[in-house]
Amino acid sequence: MYIAPNYHITLQEWNYDKDHVHILFKAHPKSEISKFINAYKSASSRLLKKEFPCLREKRWKEYFWSQSFCLLTTGVAPIEVIRQYIDSQGKKTRGGNMANKACKFRMYPNKEQKIFFAKTFGCVRFIYNQMLSDKIACYNEHRKMLKNTPAQYKAEYPWLKETDSLALANAQQNLKQAFKNFFTNPASGFPKYKSKKTIAVLIPLIIKRVPLNLKMGR
Fold first, then answer.
1. Per residue of the chain (218 residues), what is the pLDDT tens digit?
2. Element (H, E) at 134
3. Are 93 and 99 within 8 A, CB to CB?
4. Which of 96, 123, 150, 154 has fewest C-beta within 10 Å?
5. pLDDT 10s digits, 103-123
6. What is the pLDDT of residues 150-188, one digit of tens each?
């Protein structure tokens, strides 16, 4: 992880499974974690393709890693328990099958955290719908696709600055993917506006600045 120091990140534990990797790391409060993850994907992809040229024939399209990732804080969970879980990933049992283990987490957000999540969901739903509306209006008027980003709306809607930028960026990516799906396969349907009932599928679990109270089970 020669790129980690550039982002003030220290690797604690690493392991892999059949189709994903687990990384436990420490980060500085001002670390740009999303940029670090993208840099990690790019660097590791280059190294793997260099060492294993046959991967070029096995890949789906031109990508090695998917664009998605799951980012969690450890909260009050014991670090050693998390280390043991990561260390167990990919290990085989005596019968030759992959060992299936899991950690269950139950979240108990307090009043402040509930407000934080409600604001995040609302802002993500708003930015998705607003960007979709502006794209439609631009196409109807100029017959071209508008290239808009969440950052362009923060001057007009300053309350968007209170929301994690990574959550807003995921709304942008989801909208981009919705248009891609439509143009690739029109039967999938034109992108639709999101309501409170559908917002849950828009945002991957991103808990970056709000530690939660967790109870662990097996």
1. 567 778 888 888 888 877 788 888 888 888 888 888 888 888 888 888 888 887 777 665 667 787 788 888 887 778 888 888 888 776 654 345 555 566 777 778 889 888 888 898 899 999 999 999 999 999 999 988 899 999 999 999 999 998 888 889 889 998 999 999 999 988 889 999 988 776 544 444 444 445 545 444 44
2. helix 111-142
3. yes
4. 96
5. 777 778 889 888 888 898 899
6. 999 999 999 999 888 888 988 999 899 999 999 998 888
Query: CB count, 10 Å around CB of 215?
Result: 11
SS3 11: strand
Helix/strand/coil for 127: helix
Spatial separation of the C-alpha atoms in residues 27 and 8, rounded to whole Å: 6
Eight-class DSSP state of 206: B
Q: Tell me the Cα Rg of the chain.
A: 20
In angstroms, the CA 132 to CA 124 distance is 12
- Supply angle C-alpha 117, 120, 122, rounded to 5: 110
Residue 174: exposed, middle, or buried by beta-carbon count in 10 A (0-12, 13-18, 19+)? middle
The answer to whether 36 touches 52, Cβ cutoff 8 Å, is no
Neighbours of 7 (CB within 10 A): 19
